[in-house]
Design brief:
Layout (H helix, E strand, L loop, with lengths): L4 E4 L1 E2 L13 E2 L1 H13 L3 E3 L1 H8 L7 E8 L2 H13 L5 E4 L23 H9 L3 E4 L12 H19 L5 E3 L7 H9 L4 E7 L11 E5 L6 H9 L2 H5 L1
Parallel strand pairs: 1-5, 1-10, 2-3, 4-5, 5-6, 6-7, 8-9, 9-10
Helix pairs in contact: 1-3, 5-6
Length: 238
């Protein structure tokens, strides 16, 4: 049975029309409606950690993954209460050199927004959610030497594990850019899975270091989300 892994970024009031990357900001009311509808239809939203036995074919069920990229503070403020309300878990992929910082990698493109600090990350974990790794600096891995890329991939894991006394099992490629060498680095660093920005639902046959996801954008409406999750629509797009 295919498993949709939803990909979110910011859960916040979208910026004005015409702002670059506006589509990556999902309104909190829309996020709440999506989670409420998915719960009502019998789905269980799971972090990558909780999704592991389903991805490995050990369990089956009406489940989907919830991932949030970058570690925005608005994920803690606006997504966490909703996730907790409906009994869902989620994985937030953080950038370890920017704990308490901003999305500095977007400087000059969009307004910088605050990222979770140690207190928020600790609260995220205490609520049953999971921290995933998104490199140390949100690096474009394809622009780095192999040693530098390995530092970014493995270093992020060790940073979060040291600072928050938690296990980091899952990775996400920044900008969705990677090569076969980077998938091997992720495996050697000790990650169980790595997610991409490639469109599609996951299957047990997929390479665990190259998992596709289902993008949820600002304009994604409920019927469209149903089609993305429950049909082969996204698979064909990938």
């Amino acid at each position: 049975m295919p498993i949709p892994i939803l990909m979110y970024h910011q859960i916040d009031i979208p910026p004005v029309r015409g702002t670059p990357l506006r589509g990556l900001v999902v309104h909190p009311k829309d996020f709440h409606n999506q989670m409420r509808w998915l719960k009502w239809t019998g789905y269980q939203g799971l972090s990558m950690r909780d999704l592991e036995p389903y991805l490995q074919g050990q369990k089956q069920g009406r489940v989907f993954g919830i991932t949030l990229d970058d570690g925005y503070k608005n994920n803690f403020d606006n997504a966490l209460p909703v996730l907790s309300k409906y009994g869902f878990t989620a994985t937030c992929y953080g950038v370890s050199s920017q704990i308490g910082g901003t999305n500095a990698w977007d400087a000059g493109l969009v307004a910088e927004k605050p990222l979770m600090g140690l207190e928020e990350w600790a609260g995220w974990l205490a609520s049953g959610m999971e921290i995933g790794a998104h490199t140390r600096s949100h690096a474009d891995l394809t622009a780095l030497s192999d040693p530098a890329a390995m530092e970014e991939i493995g270093g992020c894991k060790s940073d979060f594990e040291r600072k928050l006394d938690c296990e980091v099992r899952h990775f996400c490629y920044p900008f969705g850019r990677f090569s076969p060498a980077h998938t091997e680095m992720a495996r050697k660093a000790g990650y169980v899975t790595a997610t991409t920005t490639r469109r599609g639902r996951t299957h047990t046959k997929h390479n665990a270091m190259e998992l596709p996801r289902v993008m949820v954008a600002r304009a994604t409406y409920l019927l469209q989300l149903f089609v993305k999750m429950g049909t082969a629509y996204e698979d064909k797009k990938g």
